[in-house]
């Protein structure tokens, strides 16, 4: 079969079986086997020299032209270790969203400190639960990441990559929120649990409708139900008081459970994502 495959390459240059007794499925089987078998690749090299001298001469001519150029080429410098490791946690598509989240936090902090007539409502507290959601959506978005298809097809894609990038978003946003809360007197207990609950719920719903859509829907819902009424009435919503923390803990547990129960939902390419 290797001899017939080598002779077939003489006529077509593609190994499609033309001019040989090999059927198309046999040619595909031989090529698949050659990819994993070094012994048969050596046999093919020998067969080409004897069965297809024209092909052997062509290969030698091509190699004779390439070898001097390859010897002169400067090797590509190795990637820095920190850069190679960072690519497993971040994507350039996340940077604008992270900058936006930091900018919104600083703006809310300035408005809180300046006291622009929002009563007892802290804008840092209102925005804190949903600020990481935009970065999480950008971390796994087909429309924002130009390398989305390549990333989604990588061996480590899926839930592991989503969780890595979610962690990187939280690692940037949470310290800024801690600083804003300290400056305005808002304790982390009031917003950290809702923040994690919103993030887990975004990932849980993202397994059904896509992470960007889930993030957008939850952000709009939060703005309509919590942010607008709180600013209009001049008082903090009940869900952001300490009495609402058990509810947020339950939401966090449910969202985390759904994510763990459906890990395969984040490794399938679908149009909405």
From TrEMBL:
Membrane-spanning parts: 89-111, 123-141, 162-185, 191-211, 218-241, 247-269
Locate the coiled-coil region(s) and give their ranges: none
- Identify the keywords attached in UniProt to this record, alphabetized: Membrane, Transcription, Transcription regulation, Transmembrane, Transmembrane helix
Superkingdom of source = Bacteria
Record's protein name:
Zf-HC2 domain-containing protein
Q: Which organism is it from?
A: Streptomyces olivaceus
């Amino acid at each position: 079969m290797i001899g017939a495959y080598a002779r077939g390459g003489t006529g077509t240059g593609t190994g499609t079986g033309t001019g040989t007794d090999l059927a198309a499925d046999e040619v595909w089987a031989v090529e698949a086997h050659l990819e994993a078998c070094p012994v048969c690749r050596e046999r093919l090299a020998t067969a080409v020299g004897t069965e297809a001298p024209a092909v052997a001469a062509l290969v030698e001519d091509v190699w004779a032209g390439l070898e001097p150029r390859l010897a002169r080429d400067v090797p590509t410098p190795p990637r820095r270790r920190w850069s190679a490791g960072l690519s497993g946690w971040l994507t350039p598509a996340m940077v604008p969203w992270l900058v936006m989240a930091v900018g919104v936090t600083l703006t809310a902090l300035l408005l809180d400190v300046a006291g622009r007539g929002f009563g007892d409502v802290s804008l840092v507290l209102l925005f804190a639960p949903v600020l990481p959601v935009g970065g999480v959506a950008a971390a796994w978005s087909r429309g924002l990441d130009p390398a989305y298809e390549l990333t989604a097809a990588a061996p480590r894609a899926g839930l592991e990559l989503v969780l890595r990038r979610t962690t990187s978003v939280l690692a940037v946003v949470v310290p800024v929120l801690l600083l804003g809360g300290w400056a305005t007197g808002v304790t982390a207990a009031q917003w950290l649990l809702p923040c994690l609950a919103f993030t887990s719920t975004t990932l849980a719903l993202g397994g059904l409708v896509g992470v960007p859509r889930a993030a957008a829907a939850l952000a709009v819902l939060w703005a309509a139900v919590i942010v607008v009424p709180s600013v209009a009435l001049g008082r903090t919503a009940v869900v952001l008081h300490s009495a609402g923390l058990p509810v947020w803990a339950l939401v966090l547990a449910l969202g985390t459970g759904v994510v763990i129960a459906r890990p395969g939902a984040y490794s399938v390419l679908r149009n909405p994502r």
